[in-house]
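Narrative of accomplishments. A recurring question from our advisory board has been how the design workflow behaves on a single, concrete structure rather than in aggregate. To address it, we present the structure tokens for one chain from the evaluation set, followed by the sequence designed for it. No filtering or post-editing was applied between the two.
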């Protein structure tokens, strides 16, 4: 189905009472690729699909996103470190309850490349700019109009699947998080803490574990660290309770 046909459908098919329509437009996808058998398999030989899901932050079930969408190989990156892909259908649309629009609008979508030769080839999305357009029928004419447009950038997951950690490192990070949680000021819901991240290598693990436990950990910028250091505080990160 052509992009023009999909967009035309989005603006012409009736929207049920109490529902809103989201038109999702994709741009090209940049991926890092790991190939464990480069001598006999390549990206060009693979069958690729894009999985799209609302993030875990929102409780919205969307039937249209239960399927994956075909993706085609465009070219290798000039630096040789990745590939450029493109969805065959550059737009999709789905209907949700009107009260769910804000949830979808604020939250980030989760994207993942699925593939036929997953035993040998793994894809890690690094860039996927996309646009959400909220469509709603006018009260008088019933004509479907664009209410708002939001352009977003893909945010890679905290842990991509490429990292390898030992059980000792997992226990060590969990212990650091446990000690940091006890420093949270219940009045503000947060605290500045110090993590030994092994020069950043353990940071995805620390952030990932904390996320599962209901906490958010953000690295502090250099200016904030320097300012707090002048106050006699040796810190590296902020930890706070996840908003629900």
């Amino acid at each position: 189905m052509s992009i023009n046909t999909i967009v035309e459908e989005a603006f012409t098919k009736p929207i049920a009472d109490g529902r809103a329509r989201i038109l999702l437009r994709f741009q090209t996808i940049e991926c890092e690729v790991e190939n464990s058998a480069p001598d006999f398999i390549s990206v060009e030989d693979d069958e690729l699909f894009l999985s799209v899901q609302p993030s875990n932050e929102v409780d919205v079930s969307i039937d249209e996103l239960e399927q994956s969408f075909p993706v085609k190989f465009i070219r290798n990156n000039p630096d040789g470190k990745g590939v450029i892909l493109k969805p065959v259908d550059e737009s999709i649309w789905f209907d949700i309850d009107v009260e769910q629009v804000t949830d979808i609008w604020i939250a980030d979508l989760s994207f993942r490349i699925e593939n036929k030769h997953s035993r040998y080839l793994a894809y890690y999305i690094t860039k996927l700019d996309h646009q959400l357009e909220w469509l709603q029928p006018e009260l008088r004419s019933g004509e479907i109009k664009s209410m708002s447009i939001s352009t977003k950038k893909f945010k890679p997951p905290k842990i991509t699947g490429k990292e390898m950690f030992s059980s000792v490192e997992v226990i060590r990070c969990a212990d650091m998080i446990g000690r940091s949680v006890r420093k949270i000021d219940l009045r503000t819901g947060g605290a500045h803490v110090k993590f030994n991240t092994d020069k950043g290598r353990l940071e995805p693990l620390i952030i990932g574990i904390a996320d599962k436990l209901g906490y958010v950990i953000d690295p502090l910028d250099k200016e904030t660290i320097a300012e707090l250091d002048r106050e006699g505080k040796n810190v590296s990160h902020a930890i706070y309770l996840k908003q629900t």
